[in-house]
């Protein structure tokens, strides 16, 4: 994670709600008008009438958001969780503060003399929140519930990968706009500060993952992975390589889904940041890929984000057991699933082992890691701490991936990922 020096005005000019420092991925969800289903994934399908609290006081906001949570519990969309409710009570205070909050005073201060001595300096901006906890404990849900109820139009909900791509594009545009240098002329330009100011000027609430800043810290960890609770499955979407007829089942499902596509089956070329990425078998919004095609090539978040933009269903065949021997491929796979989950892409997998046995943090040769530690001049206790941190980070990422893949097999997730169905609903 890169750290940039930002002027104080930019640093404190946006309100930031944060999640796990390096290991979470999130998505904004809108509540529909239907109340159905039970478990972690179905809370978004249960909407209720507006709160009877009409006051502008903080108590009214607490009443509204906690009452909404209680109704979701009553209709069976959520399981009662005291920690989640406590977090919402704290977030409701922020919700009230943000109603009339504007960060412009922090990076566009009035000229000297306009402030009376009694007023003094403007009050510091409110602190953000940093939510952390085990996988599937409701951090994404709480963030989305909070975001959907903030009555401030200058808000943005972003994921780490998309945010960093946006940063790089802004930096590139600024560098392109600079006057051409003469041969031999030295010129130093730091685009980070103006880009930070640009983002601060656009938003005062940033709901963001994988970063920590000026925040209160809250643990959301009831010990329950709600994605693993019983949910209605969307048919069979996870096949084992050794199962008789598994390949044939995937072939039939692809052909069935392809019937609704206004396209022919064939390769497709994706343009990603000036590069061409080829997918050998696609049909409209469906891609049929192998694990090697997606994770053994030098691909990253930008490629997977482009896939998520173009496809609502992706078949991933021949996923191996992911040991340390395949560390690079395993990291790409977690990034792939993070981006697909964040954009509600549906997946059908053919793997070598059951889902809960897919990641094995043993085996392989750690020679490259030892060489890296040597290059960094680290040894002894310092090297041990770094290696342990990396291992813990990867294990958490793998656990999150398994948890998300379980949710991605539910009927609720599958239905929400059908973009053709959603487009028809929007048109009507």
From TrEMBL:
Q: Which keywords fit this entry according to its UniProt record? A: ATP-binding, Nucleotide-binding
Q: Which domain of life is it from?
A: Eukaryota
Could you give a GO molecular-function term held by this entry?
ATP hydrolysis activity
Is S-adenosyl-L-methionine found in the keyword set? no
Q: Which InterPro entries does the entry mention?
A: ATPase_AFG1-like (IPR005654), P-loop_NTPase (IPR027417)
Q: Name one GO cellular component term.
A: mitochondrion
Pfam family name, one: AFG1_ATPase
Whether Nucleotide-binding counts among this entry's keywords is: yes
Q: To which protein family does this belong?
A: Belongs to the AFG1 ATPase family.
Q: What is this protein called?
A: Lactation elevated protein 1 homolog B isoform X2
């Amino acid at each position: 994670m890169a750290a940039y020096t930002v002027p104080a005005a930019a640093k404190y000019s946006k309100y930031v709600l944060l999640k796990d420092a390096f290991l979470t991925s999130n998505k904004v969800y809108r509540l529909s008008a239907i109340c159905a289903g039970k478990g972690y994934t179905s809370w978004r399908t249960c909407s209720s009438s507006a709160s009877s609290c009409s006051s502008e006081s903080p108590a009214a906001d607490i009443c509204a958001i906690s009452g909404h949570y209680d109704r979701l519990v009553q209709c069976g969309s959520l399981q009662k969780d005291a920690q989640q409710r406590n977090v919402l009570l704290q977030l409701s205070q922020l919700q009230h503060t943000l109603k009339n909050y504007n960060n412009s005073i922090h990076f566009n201060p009035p000229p000297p003399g306009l402030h009376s001595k009694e007023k003094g300096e403007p009050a510091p901006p409110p602190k953000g929140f940093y939510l952390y906890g085990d996988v599937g404990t409701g951090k994404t849900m709480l963030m989305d519930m909070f975001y959907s109820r903030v009555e401030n139009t200058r808000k943005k909900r972003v994921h780490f990968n998309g945010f960093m791509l946006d940063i790089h594009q802004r930096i590139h545009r600024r560098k392109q706009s600079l006057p051409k240098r003469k041969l031999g002329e030295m010129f130093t330009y730091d685009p980070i500060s103006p880009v930070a100011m640009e983002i601060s000027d656009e938003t005062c609430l940033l709901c963001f993952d994988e970063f920590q800043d000026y925040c209160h810290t809250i643990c959301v960890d009831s010990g329950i992975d709600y994605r693993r609770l019983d949910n209605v499955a969307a048919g069979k979407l996870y096949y084992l390589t050794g199962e008789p007829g598994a390949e044939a089942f995937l072939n039939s499902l692809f052909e069935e889904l392809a019937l609704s596509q206004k396209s022919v089956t064939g390769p497709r070329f994706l343009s990603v940041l000036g590069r061409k990425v080829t997918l050998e078998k696609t049909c409209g919004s469906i891609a049929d890929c192998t694990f090697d095609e997606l994770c053994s090539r030098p691909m990253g978040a930008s490629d997977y984000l482009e896939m998520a933009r173009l496809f609502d269903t992706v078949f991933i065949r021949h996923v191996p057991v992911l040991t340390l021997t395949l560390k690079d491929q395993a990291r790409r796979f977690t990034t792939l699933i993070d981006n697909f989950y964040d954009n509600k892409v549906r997946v059908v997998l053919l793997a070598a082992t059951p889902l809960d046995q897919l990641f094995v943090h043993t085996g392989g040769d750690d020679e490259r890691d030892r060489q890296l530690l040597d290059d960094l001049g680290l040894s002894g206790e310092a090297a041990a701490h770094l290696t342990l941190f990396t291992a813990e980070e990867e294990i958490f990422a793998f656990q999150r991936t398994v948890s998300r893949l379980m949710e991605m097999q539910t009927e609720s997730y599958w239905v929400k990922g059908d973009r053709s169905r959603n487009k028809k609903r929007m048109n009507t």
